[in-house]
Amino acid sequence: SPTLGEIFNPARDCPDIVDQLPEAEDGFYWIVLPKGTKHKIWCDVHTDGGGFALVGMKDSPVSWTVPSNSIPVDPQGPPHWSSDLGDVEVLDFRVQFSTDKGFEGAKADWFYRLNPQRKFGDIFSVDKGCPDLQAGIGNIEFVKDLLKQSVLTNNFKCSKFGPHTHHMLGWGKMNYCLRHQCNNGYAILDVIKFRYDNFGAYSYSAVSSFSGMNHNSTAFVGCDRGKCCACFGPKGGRQNYCGSNCTAMNGGTVTTKAFVWFWVRTRMPERLWKRCMEFVVKNSAGKPEKHFIDPQTGTAQKGSCSGNLRSFLNEGTLTVSDKESFDKIPDVPGLLSYRKDDKQLYINQGSKWQALSTEQEFEQTKKQIQSQEKKIQSLENKANIQEKKLQNQEKKIQSQGNMIRKLEKENQGNKIKGSQKWLRL
């Protein structure tokens, strides 16, 4: 039968590929859309456990002119949004950008956990977590930095996309283009080819509730008041590095050269190693409070991880591509991980990883052990022979000692008899 993900055996979604094909690689797969039609899509099966579907790509920070159509989105381009996935329910919306055309050089990579989930064609809103008259991606449960594999905040509420003017302009037109073909992008009037919007951005802040437009951001890509750029800080940074109107702050970097990828995840893959994640945020009074992400529901909860949520392994072995990914795996005793770069299987021993031998190495080690065992057996045999010789020598020495003591007694007796004879004389 056809392999899952082929056109005659489409998967349910990208997490289904992760669940059913442990050896799957990033690439194109066929899935079934909510309306029952088949669609070819690029799946990321590794990042954060995998299950991300590529829904958009652009080769500059400019948002206005990116078209949407039914052609599968390729990581290498051409730039466009998918117009076939508008009815897909989205759990995580992910933004990734780099200054070159490869994922490896990513300068920022994060996702918003949406609560509640929503259809991709309703990703933007004006009244759900975002302030009045300013639209964006709202009702966000938490933001996770995928470069550092850490949850940054659960206080973030809205990534501002642009001002609200009309439900069929700006953010509303963008939602429309995620369900319908838009040849010239969301901000272009098709009839007269006139651009009516100066905004259109994706951002987050690790220290405040809003980002974009008149708010500072930790990372930003898109357009603000007619200026388009990508802005980022140091890897793992938790400050705001991007000001309004494409300005840098706190040592941030602003560039007009950026390749951007947009991803959605419909659900967490079931075949996943998961760990309860803890993080600390400041409450409204400025005091730090500990929170955790429930690995079963993906929601943020106040408090610490309980014992039954601390860590668990559903099945299988955690497969990673390289040492960098391998080093991000927390220590869980007994966890198995396979590294593709050195083709080694490792087991976690609590504070360190121990490589397990390959079959060839095992056979070589087995032969070495058998050879050593033969040598040891030979030495033991020699030792036994030597021990018997020593025992025989000890018996001879004992026998000789007995003989000497007997002669000494006889000699002593003769001396006494001689003395007695001399006295009688």
Q: Can you tell me the number of structural domains?
A: 3
Taking the sheet with the most strands, its summary is: 10 strands, mixed
Helix amount, in percent? 10-25%
User: End-to-end span in angstroms?
Assistant: 126 Å
Structural class: alpha+beta
Shape: elongated
How much is the average pLDDT?
83
Q: What's the helix count?
A: 4
Q: What's the alpha carbon Rg, rounded to whole Å? A: 37 Å
**Assembly state here?**
single chain
Low-pLDDT residue intervals, each spanning 5 or more residues: 307-316
| Total strand segments | 30
> How large a portion of the residues is in β-strands, by DSSP E?
25-35%
How would you describe the overall organization of this protein?
This protein has 425 residues and is of the alpha+beta class. It folds into 3 domains: 14-265, no CATH class; 273-310, no CATH class; 316-382, 3-Layer(aba) Sandwich (YefM-like fold). It has 4 helices and 30 strands. It has helices at residues 14-20, 171-177, 323-327, 359-424; strands at 27-32, 38-44, 52-58, 68-69, 80-82, 89-98, 106-119, 134-137, 140-145, 150-153, 158-163, 188-189, 194-195, 200-204, 210-211, 219-224, 227-232, 242-243, 247-248, 253-255, 259-265, 273-275, 277-282, 288-293, 300-302, 311-313, 318-320, 336-339, 344-348, 353-356. The strands form 8 sheets. Strands 1, 2, 3, 4, 5, 6, 7, 9, 10 and 21 form a 10-stranded mixed β-sheet that branches. A 4-stranded antiparallel β-sheet has the order 14-16-17-20, with no helix packed on it. Strand 23 and strand 24 (288-293) form a beta hairpin. The longest helix has 66 residues, at 359-424. The protein is elongated, with a radius of gyration of 37 Å. The model is unreliable at 307-316 (pLDDT under 50).
